[in-house]
Design goal:
Structural class: alpha/beta
CATH architecture of the largest domain: 3-Layer(aba) Sandwich
CATH class of the largest domain: Alpha Beta
Number of domains: 2
CATH superfamily of the largest domain: Type I PLP-dependent aspartate aminotransferase-like (Major domain)
Bound molecules: pyridoxal-5'-phosphate
Shape: globular
Distance between the termini: 51 Å
Strand content: 15-25%
Largest sheet: 7 strands, mixed
Radius of gyration: 21 Å
CATH topology of the largest domain: Aspartate Aminotransferase, domain 2
Length: about 375
């Protein structure tokens, strides 16, 4: 079945009473039969498994094209479980220098306690990755386009290099989703997401997931971190995500279309120093992006403003539809001055704002941006 059909019907359970939409199984436990065995569907206790979670995990595996998926209560819980399951003490991992700040935080301040070391690399440079590989490197994390600079990593090249050295590749596919970018087809071993973003799509549910390409020894280990570690999403959150996934293709299709028009519009504004969007032909990663992003370029755009930090902040709060807020991927457009959100060790340029383009009508979005530009004329 096509992606769009799977996003609606994938993982749909048989329902004895014929309800078209799945009920929310608000129960912590499940009845056993007279012999003390599990009931027909194999459910015991909701931390172990729950029909809503199973439905979500089945759909996620189908959409990403992997053999097994694991749902977590947030993207960071998924990243935590992934690093903990893959890495042993005394091992090393490689992360992008422009990496989601929560993952950089996890790697820099939590993993060292387990004697796990890391190297940050500019992943748009394959040579730099090769140089960073050590004897004890076990994992390379890819995030492309990167956050917030929208640098592009050639996934196939990194996977080929990693494979030749017996290193696993985990791809953070949050910003693209499998609708745009399919890391397993390019050689990745693991994909993870913050489902809070495009999968949820309405800025009302936190979630995360890991999907494995092949059922291997990692499956049992990740499952252990999920169910024994107790890192499980609620049945309601699974139900919400499952519903949201049904419209992923419609939402994201419109978001991409809007973003592409907006990127062209931003290029015409004298207040804009630089537009970071891989769909623009002058973006340094454009050719790779065109190939590995299925001709689509996502709905995230960053811009550098000529007026510096002050103007960036005025612009970010100067619109009506684009709300100045953290997060991304929802149906409503957001804008964020990343540097102010990065706490004590900010990395983003002071004049940079990041746009998450929603599904609103394009003329209204352009008019809203024009309103912001009026304020920094
Ligand atoms: C938001 C985000 C995360 C973290 O996910 P949470 O759901 O906030 O825990 C990880 N990676 C990327 C790329 C993100 O955008």
């Amino acid at each position: 079945m096509h992606f769009d059909t799977l996003s609606i019907h994938g993982g749909r359970p048989d329902d004895q009473i014929g309800s078209v939409m799945s009920p929310i199984h608000v129960t912590t436990t499940f009845e056993r039969d007279e012999a003390g065995n599990l009931g027909g569907k194999g459910y015991v206790y909701t931390r172990w498994d729950n029909p809503n979670r199973r439905q979500l995990e089945t759909k996620l595996a189908l959409l990403e094209g992997g053999e097994e998926a694991f749902a977590f209560p947030s993207g960071m819980a998924a990243a935590m479980a992934l690093t903990q399951s893959v890495l042993e003490p005394e091992t090393h991992l490689i992360i992008p220098d422009d990496c989601y700040h929560g993952i950089a935080h996890l790697v820099k301040s939590m993993l060292p306690k387990w004697k796990i070391t890391y190297t940050e690399v500019d992943m748009s440079d394959a040579g730099a990755i090769e140089k960073a590989i050590k004897k004890n490197t076990r994992l390379i994390i890819i995030e492309t386009p990167s956050n917030p600079m929208l640098k592009i990593t050639d996934i196939a090249t990194v996977c080929k290099l990693a494979k030749s050295k017996g290193i696993l590749v985990g791809c953070d596919n949050t910003w693209t989703t499998p609708l745009i970018q399919r890391p397993f087809e390019l050689g990745a071993d693991l994909v993870f997401h913050s489902s809070t973003k495009f999968f949820g799509g309405h800025s009302d549910v936190l979630g995360g997931c890991i999907i494995v390409h092949k059922k291997n020894e990692l499956v049992a280990r990740i499952r252990e971190y999920q169910v024994i570690g107790g890192s499980v999403p609620s049945p309601f959150d699974c139900w919400l995500l499952n519903r949201s996934l049904s419209t992923l293709s419609l939402r994201l299709g419109r978001q991409i279309q809007n973003a592409s028009t907006i990127a062209d519009f931003l290029k015409t504004k004298p207040q804009v120093e630089q537009v970071y969007y891989p769909g623009l032909p002058d973006h340094p990663g454009h050719d790779i992006a065109k190939r590995q992003m299925n001709g689509l370029f996502g709905s995230m755009i960053s811009i550098g403003l000529r007026g510096g930090e002050k103007q960036a902040l005025v612009f970010a709060s100067g619109m009506k539809l684009f709300k100045h807020a953290t997060s991304l991927g929802g149906v409503e457009s957001l804008i964020e001055h990343r540097r102010s959100a990065e706490g004590n060790s900010p990395r983003s340029p002071a004049n940079l704002v990041r746009l998450s383009v929603g599904v609103e009508y394009i003329d209204d979005l352009i008019a809203d941006l024009a309103l912001g530009f009026e304020k920094i004329k």
